[in-house]
Amino acid sequence: MKIRINHNSFLKSKRKLNFCPEHFTKTSIKADRDQMLWVFENTNNRFAVYSPEKATDEEKMDFLLAFENRLQLAFEDPQEAMLCELKWS
């Protein structure tokens, strides 16, 4: 009996990063609920949800500003970045 494990489901929590490493391909796509669901379902590699701007100390303390839609997506695989750009632009 062969058991097939969907590695995307198993490793879902380890694919999403909260910072953007230098080698990731950055996109101009804003990270909201629809885009995040699409990324989890249609990509295989790691991706990052990051803020392209440096937040001031006052902004870091403001809970509402932290969730204002300023987060963007970046991908480890440039092909996935291009696919995301084509889908959401």
What does this molecule look like?
The structure is a single chain. The chain has 89 residues and is α+β, with helices and mostly antiparallel strands. It has one domain. 43% of the residues lie in helices and 18% in strands. The protein contains six helices and four strands. The protein is globular, with a radius of gyration of 15 Å. 16% of the residues are buried.
Fold blueprint:
Blueprint: H1 7-10, H2 12-15, E1 16-17, E2 25-30, H3 33-42, E3 47-50, H4 57-61, H5 63-66, E4 72-75, H6 78-88
Parallel strand pairs: 1-3
Antiparallel strand pairs: 2-4, 3-4
Summarize the structure.
With 89 residues, the chain is of the alpha+beta class.
Content of β-strand: 15-25%
Count every beta strand, where a strand is a DSSP E run of 2 or more residues: 4
Round the Cα radius of gyration to an integer and report it: 15 Å
Overall geometry comes to globular
Distance between the termini: 44 Å
Helical residue percent?
A: 40-55%
* Uncertain stretches of 5 or more adjacent residues: none
Q: Output the strand order for the largest sheet.
A: 1-3-4-2
Q: Give the averaged pLDDT, no decimals.
A: 79
Oligomer: single chain
Reported for the largest beta sheet, the result is: 4 strands, mixed
Order of helices and strands: HHEEHEHHEH
The number of distinct structural domains comes to 1
